[in-house]
Amino acid sequence: MKILKFGGTSVGSAERMKAVASLIHNGEPKIVVLSAMSGTTNALVQIAETLYQNNHSEAKALIQALHDKYKQVVEELYITNDKKKQANELLTQHFEYLTAFTLDLFTIHEERAVLAQGELLSTALFQLFLEEQSINSVLLPALSFMKIDENEEPDNAYIEKQLRKELEKYTGTELFITQGFICRNAFGEIDNLKRGGSDYSASLIGAAADASEIQIWTDIDGMHNNDPRIVKNTYPIAELSFDEAAELAYFGAKILHPSSVLPAKQKNIPVKLLNTMQPEAKGTTISAEAEGGRIKAVAAKDGITAIKIKSGRMLLAYGFLRSVFEVFERYKTPIDMITTSEVAVSLTIDSDKYLNEIISELKEFGQVEVDRDQTIICVVGDFISERSGSGLAIFESLQHIALRMISYGGSKNNISLLINTTDKVEALTKLNDGIFDRNSADA
Ligand code: ADP
Ligand code: ASP
Ligand code: MG
């Protein structure tokens, strides 16, 4: 069984949906995970914001505008009037459901239900299209198997058991269509795997179904060596190890959700990143067997806060670091980078939710300094077998940029550098020119 995930742009219009249908229909059984059509989740977020503000007339106008967009998709997607009628009835149900939220107080639970409508709509419309084309397919409701626990971690045992149960109901089926992104939480409520979470759905499903391969189909020909939204002349990387891909996803390569590599790695399932606009391109293969030996890529993660705790008296004392880490643990705030010196320890976090509480507890240990608007630049590759002075090339490229922290040796795959976000574009551009050997480029 293969898992194929198609992102927002890949199902972003009637034309794109038709292209996806022809890509997936080759007789082999597969689970197809779809995102919401591009722009939909953003529109639903905006609807939720206006509902929070009790701006019901604006919310109704936004819901109407989205409904109109979908009516147009229905016109273009189906041939028969019968299917158009069925699809329009489906739209009416979903948009009446959304409109009902304009009558009452809006809560976080309702926000999640609103956000789920995008994937529910794209999959239902796509399934109707496959039916019209007489393609053998079944719509699998993700809400009946995808679940997170009280720590917002996937409940793998439940997912596996429920998914198998659902699949067994329809033996002999070629295509199973399901929603990315959405899930139930520990209370059984509708929830989600955070923005970009359909990639994560695909790898959780792949792991649960013991898939032979997970394919992430998107709008670019694989993982590039640098952020193509910021830097010109980037190129796709043919092979990445699971660890390299995980570092890149975690440190800002938007093509993959930050958590999406781990489930595939745990089950040793290769992940392919492929381009729906250019299906013949070879894309990127992420596996345990990737070739090593060189710098592969750079990524950048914004929204980082650096915290420095200065305490000459206590730093070398046994148990000091543990006490510091316990503060972050109490507030469920993960630490990304850490460096220590004789008199201070610096670390970074990407969530400011409990920053005030964390700072006031840390003040018990010494003087605390906080720097916001920081960016982690993460250089990924094989730094153990790399013998060509890659460190030198990195530092030479960044010689005019203030480096706030440097982390090396945590894993063999990663050198991380903390800079001011205002220096990000320059840093990524300089690294692109300075550290990649274009002769060994994959493209
Ligand atoms: P989808 O909607 O298919 O999930 P995303 O927009 O989430 O697509 O991810 C694909 C986008 O990720 C690309 O269009 C590209 O702009 C962006 N991106 C950022 N960094 C990278 C990278 N290193 N390699 C490839 N794409 C990247
Ligand atoms: N539709 C969701 C989002 O836009 C999930 C995804 O596309 O992966 O974030
Ligand atoms: Mg995405």
UniProtKB/TrEMBL annotation:
Aspartokinase ACT domain location: 377-432
Species lineage: Bacteria, Pseudomonadati, Bacteroidota, Cytophagia, Cytophagales
Enzyme's top EC category: transferase
Pathway: Amino-acid biosynthesis; L-methionine biosynthesis via de novo pathway; L-homoserine from L-aspartate: step 1/3; Amino-acid biosynthesis; L-threonine biosynthesis; L-threonine from L-aspartate: step 1/5; Amino-acid biosynthesis; L-lysine biosynthesis via DAP pathway; (S)-tetrahydrodipicolinate from L-aspartate: step 1/4
Gene Ontology MF term list: aspartate kinase activity; ATP binding
Keywords: Amino-acid biosynthesis, ATP-binding, Kinase, Nucleotide-binding, Transferase
Gene Ontology CC annotations of this record: cytosol
Name used for this protein in its record: Aspartokinase
Reactions catalysed according to its record: L-aspartate + ATP = 4-phospho-L-aspartate + ADP
EC number(s) stated in the UniProt entry for this protein: 2.7.2.4
Family: Belongs to the aspartokinase family.
Amino acids binding ATP: K5, F6, G7, G8, T218, D219, R229
Species per Swiss-Prot/TrEMBL record: Pontibacter oryzae
Domain Aspartate/glutamate/uridylate kinase stretches: 2-275
PROSITE patterns: ASPARTOKINASE (PS00324)
Residues the entry annotates as binding substrate: T41, E119
One of the protein's GO biological processes: homoserine biosynthetic process
